[in-house]
Amino acid sequence: MRKIKVGLIQQANSADPKENILKLAKNIEQLAKKGAQLVVLQELHNSLYFCQTENTALFDLAEPIPGPSTAFYGELARQFGIVLVTSLFEKRAAGLYHNTAVVFDTDGSIAGKYRKMHIPDDPAYYEKFYFTPGDLGFHPIQTSIGKLGVQVCWDQWYPEGARLMALQGAELLIYPTAIGYESSDTPEEQERQREAWTTVQRGHAVANGIPVIAVNRVGLEPDPSGQTNGIQFWGSSFVAGPQGEFLARATKDQEENLLVEVDMERSENVRRWWPFLRDRRIEEFGPLTRRFID
Questions:
Q1: Which of 5, 23, 91, 116 is catalytic?
Q2: Is 116 a catalytic site residue?
Q3: What global pTM score does this model have?
Q4: For residues 294 and 215, what is the distance between their CA atoms, to the nearest angstrom?
Q5: Active site residue 34
Q6: The one catalytic residue among 23, 90, 153, 182
Q7: Choosing from 5, 23, 43, 127, which is the catalytic residue?
Q8: Could you tell me the domains of the chain?
Q9: How far apart are CA 49 and CA 17, in angstroms?
Q10: How does pLDDT run across 112-130, given as a tens digit for each residue?
Q11: Is 43 one of the catalytic residues?
């Protein structure tokens, strides 16, 4: 049987990027020494989630790809012989920035990258101010441990991206994430949001017959503007199997390193039992490319 050990790092960040990066490096090392072959980091893991405000000075956090961060994380991947999924603020050109996932193979090389396609614009999530929508499409990244269907945060709510990755042979769906509560929501509403986030991704696992890995940040990050009470990131990082079953799930409020064994051959059997790809009426799906059907 073909099984891989997957490491998830659910981390609380500080305002000091160097501190965050060194903390990540320590956690990556711990997971690698326990046998992790694939390690996944949360969205924009080098810094605080800076999109709570619109501030042109924060573009200074961005860097080119390749650049300093890719050199640093590539060396960690090479040193520990792991596949590493990172999430970086990419400076592509002056005034042109992306929210970009970079995947490193076990030799430290860049196996591929994915630019976040769906960009939210909500109170405390002013991402359209910072990020240009991705232009690399939905394409899995080939690594030495398999094809990885990497997307980023807001992309995880859209079944189309997950399906396109699966149709191109993705063996895992992976979502680095930064999502949390606004304090004015009631506890009941907060729980509905968290469970909806989990449920929609488990649905991608079921509909496509492949595992899903979602890695979220944790902890309270204040709003620098003071207009809100900040974001309480809800953690709850998880791995779901190809029938949506939880293989592991982190807490809502604690930093955690999870190590999970994933059976990469189970998807074959699940797809034989539930042949959703076989029975798709693709000749009738053309209208899905329209914004709305009046």
A1: 116
A2: yes
A3: 0.97
A4: 37
A5: no
A6: 153
A7: 43
A8: 3-278 (3.60.110.10)
A9: 11
A10: 999 999 999 988 999 999 9
A11: yes
